[in-house]
Amino acid sequence: MLEHAIKTLKDQFAKLARTLPPVAGWSEMELPTNGWLFLQHQHQHHWPGAQQTMRSSRISQDTAKLFEQAIAPAAAAPRRSSRRSLSRFSYSQHESPRTTNIAATITTDIEDAIAFASPPPKKRRLAASTTSTSAASSPSPPTPPPQQRRQPRTPRKPATKRTDTLTGETFISPPSEWEVTYNTVKQMRSPPGAASNAAVDSMGCERLADTKASPRTQRFHTLISLMLSSQTKDTVNAVAMHRLKTELPAHKPGAPMGLNLDNVLAVEPGVLNELIWAVGFHNNKTKYIKQAAEVLRDKWRGDIPDTIEGLTSLPGVGPKMAYLCLSAAWGRTEGIGVDVHVHRITNLWGWHKTKNPEETRLALQSWLPRDKWREINWLLVGFGQTVCLPIGRRCGDCDLGLGGLCKAADRKKVIAGRKTREQTAAFVEEDVKGAVLLVKEEKKKKEDEALLELVALKQEIVNDTKVGLL
Ligand code: SF4
Predict the structure, then answer these.
(1) What pLDDT score does 165 carry?
(2) Nearest atom within ligand 1 for CA of residue 410
(3) Active-site residues: which are they?
């Protein structure tokens, strides 16, 4: 049975092979024995249409049948073979066709063998090319860009107490990078910086005095606005001050209404409390304002004290208010007005580790240049109101966070902020390019028009000359 099948198969191949063009190196005698290999050879090198022909030809179908019958034990293997087992069917140019054993190689039918001789799927080929080191023609995998590493920063140091080795004097060395931090915040506080237009810029205590009032009354306004401001937002404080300036009853008939010492002394505590009810701790503040007014009348001749000691002797006035009041009302800066914003933010930056605003004030005063003592309060209060908020800090909009200058920056927000800035910069660049292009086009259009006018003028002159000659 087997012999008969092989014989028939050889005859079929020989028959088919004789119909094809001759191939160098193949004698006619080899056709009966190596007919299949011959066909493969033809398909690969001389007869591109052979595969399709084989698939549809009667010979192919018959051959497949014969093979199945002839090699029944081998065909018992599952038709759905593994890739590895099927790879045996693939044609190899290095393999000598003369030594290939057909019966041992082909386990199913010829059509399957031809089909698997085609290149494997693209995905597999790509995977192989990336792992193979011997395939010179395979494209090398893309090399990832080198990681951009930031230069290692010098470790941040807080303000530190040191001793001069020559003189033996102790001094406080400022925190590292304090100046660049300070200047960056200053830049952010100026338009169009992210921290410009803070509430303190227009409604800070220093700005709530009525400029039309007498200097003494203006100073009194500054003191009262500072007393109202603790634990209160600038916006709320401004409203309360406006009510006092416009609604506080006159102390006697014919006297002006509004905020002045006489009216405060004369007003009922209940009325005063009602006018300032929106501010925090208004009951206590009402009491302190009334008491402070009496001290001013009795001890300071109706004016506010011009010393820190005098100011802090007033009920409800602490060092922060005193230093700010002295600066704003008398124009003398003898210390830093440290409020919650200044205390919180300077600790966030790692300038010091202090427990309360008073400790912060002393720490700052130990090294901060004196010309910055007044400015720093305004700077950091506005910064704390707009960017470095007590809750929900905007590190993505903060130049300190984006510039790697703040150790407390929220990394996620900073990364998002950097992306946004890059995109905005790209948009701006496009807009600028577009505008430049527009200007160029406009210029060219005008030049063309001028040229046309010139040509028309020339033509007119030529025509006129001709007419004149005639
Ligand atoms: S980076 Fe964040 S935490 Fe640091 S100063 Fe800016 S807003 Fe405040």
Answers:
(1) 87
(2) 2
(3) 320
Report which of 400, 395, 389, 429 is spatially closest to residue 415, judged by C-alpha positions: 395
Residues 34-54, mean pLDDT to the nearest whole number: 46
In this prediction, residue 85 carries a pLDDT of: 52
State the distance from the centre of ligand 1 to the C-alpha of 374, rounded, in angstroms: 22
Tell me the per-residue pLDDT of 168-227, one tens digit each, with 9 for 90 and over.
Answer: 888 899 998 999 999 999 999 999 999 999 999 999 998 999 999 999 999 999 999 999
pLDDT at 418 over 80: yes
CATH number of this structure's domain 195-334: 1.10.340.30
Angle at 257 between CA 254 and CA 259, to 5 degrees: 140
Half-sphere exposure of 172 (CA within 13 A, CB side): 14
Q: Is the model's pTM score more than 0.70?
A: no
* Average pLDDT of the chain to the nearest whole number: 79
H helix intervals, 349-470: 357-365, 375-386, 399-402, 411-469
- What kind of architecture, by CATH, is found in domain 174-192+340-379+386-409? Orthogonal Bundle (1.10)
Task: Delimit the domains of the chain by residue range.
Answer: 174-192+340-379+386-409, 195-334
- Rounded CA gap, 216 and 304, in Å? 8
Judge if the upstream peptide bond of residue 215 is cis by omega within 30 degrees of 0: no
Q: How far apart are CA 417 and CA 408, in angstroms?
A: 15
Residue 188 CB burial class (10 angstroms; 0-12, 13-18, ≥19) = buried
335 in contact with ligand 1, CB cutoff 6 A: no
Q: 171: which strand partners? A: 162
Ligand 1 pocket, residue 188 CB under 6 Å: no
Are 354 and 343 a contacting pair, CB within 8 Å?
yes
* 244: nearest Cα among 266, 225, 223, 218: 225
Name residues whose C-beta falls within 8 Å of residue 74's C-beta, 6 or more positions apart in sequence: 103, 107
Residue 429: other Cβ atoms inside 10 A: 10
pLDDT of residue 108: 41
CA distance 177 to 442: 49
The residues that bridge with 224 in the sheet, in sequence order, are none
